[in-house]
Amino acid sequence: MWKGRLAIISLLVVSLLASLSMFTVGGASDDQLEVYSWWTGPGEEEGLAAMAEAFEASNPGIRFVNAAVSGGAGSNAKAILASRLLANDPPDSYQRHAGLELLDDVRSGKVQDLTTLYEEQGWRKVFPKGLLDNLTIDGKIYAVPVNIHRANLIWFNPRVLRELGLAGPPKTWSDFLTQAAVIKGKGKVPLAVGPEWTQKHLMETVLLGELGADSYERLFSGDLRWTSPQVTSALDMFGKVLANSDVRSAAGEWQPQLDRVIEGSAVYAVMGDWSSSYLEQSKKLQWREGYDVATSPGTEGVYDFLSDSFTLPTGVRSPSLSRKWLIECGSADGQNLFNPLKGSIPARTDASADLYKGYLGWTLQQWRDPKTRIVGSLAHGVVANNAYNAEIDSALGLFVQHGDLGKFASTVQQQFQETR
Ligand code: GAL
């Protein structure tokens, strides 16, 4: 009860602060562009700043106003954005994920069709078809992708694995449970977890690893029921995995779970590849030395993707100015500036691979390998619309507290029908 009230009060405070800061830095003026995102973490902040600088250089006299609201996966930003859109007070462009996350905005007329811009810029030829499909609703394209991120990854400290006598990260979730017994015997936590959205991110990767790519896709298209024996057994595995984690609270940030892995109090963390810029730029660690990463258990050859994209909101002061920002986002130069800092790979197929070293080079090669099977992320908006995702959040919050798997599955199944 108190937790709920506290969350509401903090959201109100954050909204108030955000609107105050808009009042001081934003405001209705044609010589500035307000861009809304949740990129305030290490790497992403620098990536955004690099694109902002390039935007200002190619649009003299226009000031870039960074309206980012902190909170991993947009946990605060999305709520504040919703109230701004409701009040018809949109920023000049805002961040959304490619996929069904765009659907509500399109249906409620909050974003404009970008098909002509795509034609002018020749973008249909430079973005992968699967990604274009995820940006298209009823034949029209609604957002411009800057990057590709990967969700199905398990991070670890190779030194800790060696000290524990573990030959490598687990290949399946059953392997993980076997390793977990050894790890606990040595007084460490097998898996570090963070706030609610990271718990959902973990669930997504366990479902993918246990069900396989085909059934994972059928689950989100509605062909496979959450209450089916196959999904029940995958959820049962998720419950066991959580029982071997340090899950504590729905609040907080994603970086501390990686900190525990690097310090060695915990051994593994499942997280997206924004982790690589955090570990390299903030923690000054090198891939394969200070930190390492593998595909999450059971998902070898599968790429669970998400893509950060920007929109042209309805009712912006200057659509042509917003379009200039979108051109920066979709350009080869913009993507080359942004992604190496952000810890993501370019959405464009023609970007040079030379800029992507270490972990990023490894993942870019897999993304471009025609044999790789690509599926979309749940926690980062590809396979579920906002209403469905919000219902999964609530049901998952209860499941983590009470562990009633049957109730979780039947609630989510019912919500799938109701939020379609
Ligand atoms: C994702 C987003 C990433 C990164 C991450 C952590 O949803 O796509 O770019 O910001 O959240 O906040």
UniProtKB/TrEMBL annotation:
The keyword Iron does not apply. It is found in: Cell envelope. Keywords: Signal, Transport. Signal peptide: none annotated. InterPro entries: Bact_solute-bd_prot1, SBP. The keyword Signal applies. It holds the Pfam family SBP_bac_1. Transmembrane segments: none annotated. Its main location: other. PANTHER family: ARABINOSE-BINDING PROTEIN-RELATED, BINDING PROTEIN COMPONENT OF ABC SUGAR TRANSPORTER-RELATED. Belongs to the bacterial solute-binding protein 1 family. Part of a binding-protein-dependent transport system for a sugar. This is Probable sugar-binding periplasmic protein. It comes from Dactylosporangium maewongense.
